[in-house]
Amino acid sequence: MIFSPVVGTLFYWLFGINRIKRLAQKEHPQNVKQDFCNQEKSIDFHELPENWHSSIIAGYTIHPVNCVAGNRIEPLVNGDTAYPAMIESIERAKDYIVLSSYIFDFDPLGEQFVNALAAAHERGVTVNVLLDGIGVGYSWHKSDRALKKLGVKTARFLPAISFTSIRFINLRNHRKILCVDGEVAYIGGMNISKNNVVKRASHPVDDIHFKVIGPVIDQISQVFKEDWFFATGSLIQFPSFKPNTDEQKDKNSVVARVIQDGPDEHHNRARWTLINALACAKTSVKIMTPYFIPDQILMTSLHAAALRGISVEIIVPEHSNILFVDWVMEANFPRITQHGIKIYKNKRPFDHSKIVIIDDIWSFIGSTNWDPRSLEFNFEINLECFDTDFNAKLTALFASKRENSELVIEDELYRLATYKKIRNNLVRLFSPYL
């Protein structure tokens, strides 16, 4: 007992929420942040359904970034589809490549990326690779070390290398970004690992990534620019997106904007964007996430939607890659399934996909999970999208996942063994740190 104040203080110093103040950016705000102010003019929100007008207005207040039209966004299911497209874009690069990832395993798949990035550097392309300071430790052999040996510029985001920096060990850069020449970008939840090549993996992981072509690439690139400046103190510049022709722009229908979130000045932007969208829902809400541990505000928003007669469906993995998280989710199921909310457990392989679909017009894609770590501690990047055709593609993906899932029966939750209920609720106390 005599040591408990000391231990408690140390524990909070290590794992309490330490807000990051980006002092370097405040010293040079005109250089680092000006691009968000110079973007293409926002769309006329009256082009969207009336119930979403307030969402556009509130969304700009939450995150003062314009919604821009003229984007084409393509879902890429699993690494079997995503990785070849990403490597092809790297191989075609002429000007610059920026890549950010939480995990970049130096396995046979990771080696393909390392070789492609090194080859781009050799032919004169500017290449910047940013890896999370903790996520890089998932691989025994480090990809960034291999890249450095080949001359590629790399950096680590908040590495825990000293007594002072270790207090930020809980604040991770969870963003996955690849931008090439201002012409194409890739974002989503997919790390770089052989496990995402499902057809050949011994421990397969399902996931969805997204290929983006259009003016919203400038916003994605800007997020990387800020992260790189924070990690290195170096300012990088790249050309803005320029559509090939007006005809091409007309064919690209998705209206989108970046939602940048993290434990800094961007804190709570993903959470408030989701709350705002749930308040605008009229017919349906579909959520797919690997970890579903919503806080009370999000839980209330979901229940309010269900009480309005809106169909709310949630797909989670039957077994995630973190056993304790499974127990916490199971502890929350009785509360979540109130008012007709349906939860489905997706059968193996573990599904790491993250999408939110509301009505036939709105979607939310990117790196954010529905858990405290993602919403409180992590630096995340997402796209808020408005488009019926894109939503139809996501809805079809959701339906295919639901077919491989089992509905959680509310009555069965209350018949769970007593020891499991005690175990689950004890672990739930530590859910912010899982």
Features:
434 residues, alpha/beta, Endonuclease, Chain A, 15-stranded mixed sheet, two-stranded parallel ribbon, 17 helices, 17 strands, cardiolipin synthase activity, PLipase_D/transphosphatidylase, Phospholipase D/transphosphatidylase, PLD-like_dom
The CATH architecture can be named as: 2-Layer Sandwich
Strand line-up across the major sheet: 4-3-2-5-6-8-1-9-16-15-14-10-11-12-17
The proportion of residues in beta strands is: 15-25%
The figure for the number of domains is 1
N-end to C-end Cα span: 26 Å
Please mark out the parts with pLDDT under 50 across 5 or more consecutive residues, or reply none: 23-29
CATH class: Alpha Beta
GO cellular component, one term: membrane
GO biological process, one term: cardiolipin biosynthetic process
GO molecular function, one term: cardiolipin synthase activity
Organism: Glaciecola nitratireducens (strain JCM 12485 / KCTC 12276 / FR1064)
Please describe what this structure looks like.
The radius of gyration is 21 Å and the shape is globular. Helix content is about 40%, strand content about 20%. The strands form 2 sheets. Strands 4-3-2-5-6-8-1-9-16-15-14-10-11-12-17 form a 15-stranded mixed sheet, sandwiched between helices. Helix 5 (about 55-60) runs antiparallel to helix 11 (about 270-280). About 45% of the residues are buried. It has helices at about 5-15, 25, 30, 35, 55-60, 80-90, 110-120, 145-150, 215-230, 245-250, 270-280, 295-305, 325-335, 370-375, 390-405, 410-415, 420-430, and strands spanning about 70-75, 95-100, 125-130, 155, 175-180, 185-190, 205, 210-215, 255-260, 285-290, 310-315, 340-345, 350, 355-360, 360-365, 380-385, 405. With about 425 residues, the chain is of the alpha/beta class. Residues about 25-30 have low confidence and may be disordered. The protein has a single domain (about 30-434), classed as Endonuclease, Chain A (2-Layer Sandwich), CATH 3.30.870.10. It contains 17 helices and 17 strands. It comes from Glaciecola nitratireducens (strain JCM 12485 / KCTC 12276 / FR1064). GO terms for molecular function: cardiolipin synthase activity. One of its GO terms (cellular component) is membrane. Pfam families: PLDc_2.
